[in-house]
Every structure is written in structure tokens, then in C-alpha cells.
Amino acid sequence: MRHGAPQTPGRMIGHGDWPATAAGLATCIDRAAGLPVRLVVSSDLQRARHAAERIAQARGLPLRIDARWRELDFGAWDGLTAADIAPAALEAFWNDPDAAPPPGGERWSSLVARVSTAIAALPREPALVVTHGGAMRAALAALCGFGLPQLWAFALPYAALLSLTVRHGPPATAEIMGLQP
Questions:
Q1: How is 61-83 classified by DSSP, letter by letter?
Q2: DSSP label at 181?
Q3: Is 22-180 a CATH 3.40.190.10 domain?
Q4: Inter-axis angle of helices 22-32 and 46-59, to 10 degrees?
Q5: Share of residues in the chain with pLDDT > 70 (%)
Q6: pLDDT tens across 47-70, in order?
Q7: What's the order of all strands across the beta sheet hosting 127-130?
Q8: Phi-psi region of 86 (alpha: psi -120 to 50; beta: other; left: phi over 0)
Q9: What is the structure's pLDDT at 166?
Q10: What are the residue ranges spanned by the domains of the chain?
């Protein structure tokens, strides 16, 4: 599940720890109500963590905080709007985020590797991961082999629920069960 709407929409929010709105938290909690999960896992950033904490508490589920589920680190761009960034630099990033990462930020391949290790650490039981749009796309890249054009085709609005069944073993695979905006 992607975290709820942040209090600072329209910005490049990576490792910056801005909170979600009350309505964004409520939407996540409502979406999680009927999910057949036994564990909640969350990014350590509060816009994801606060929703995960409330979901776990309301359902009496264990909670695991895992920083590997953080958003891509936007470095010097964190907190900026697209209009604040040089158009050529932003275009280069969107076209190839591995070759043209944000200044002081993270490469796309680093995010995919980080999320891959987080996936490998998931238990073999149904879990809800409350994370970020970039981490969700990185999971799809790692598990399904999607390239950037396919990944950008997925609409992942705030509080989106993406259901993946992870098959452990060499190599790990996944099947997409559903996407709810």
C-alpha cells in the first residue's frame, strides 16, 4: 500500500520525513480493514509509518519497521517542486534515473536492490507493506522484471493498494493479483 496523501503534495518527497494528512491516514486505514494479513511492515518515514502503526494497532497485528522500504532518495531535490528543478536535469532523471540521479541522491538501481533485500526478508505469510510509490515500482521491477516504461504506466495514487503474491525460492517471482486506486 502506498502511504496516504502527504501534507506537502506536488513535491519530490524522498527521504524527507513529512507527514501524511489526516484524510490520507484515514484512507489507508479504511483500505486495510478487510485485508487477510498477519503482519504489517512499513517504511520508517512517518507518512507511511503512522498509517502502518494505526492499522497494526486496530487489527492487533505485529508491526515491523524496515527502512529498506523508504522512497528513492531525491538528495538535493527533496522537497522541491518540478518547477524548482532545471528542466533538462529533471528530464534526464525521468528518462534514465540510474544514469542521471538527483544531485546527492540515489540511483534507481540502488532503490531496486534495497527493495529486493526487503522483499527477501518478508515472512512466508500474508503481510501488508505500507511504503512509497517509488518502492512499489522497485518491487515490480525486482519481482516482475518490468522496465521503466512499464513501471511509469502504473498509476499508484496515494493509498493505492497493490496486491502481489511472492513465490519464494530461486528466483523469487510474483504475480500481480490486483491494483486498487
A1: --EEE-GGGPPP--GGGTT--GG
A2: -
A3: no
A4: 40
A5: 92
A6: 999 999 999 999 999 999 999 999
A7: 63-65, 39-42, 127-130
A8: beta
A9: 81
A10: 22-180
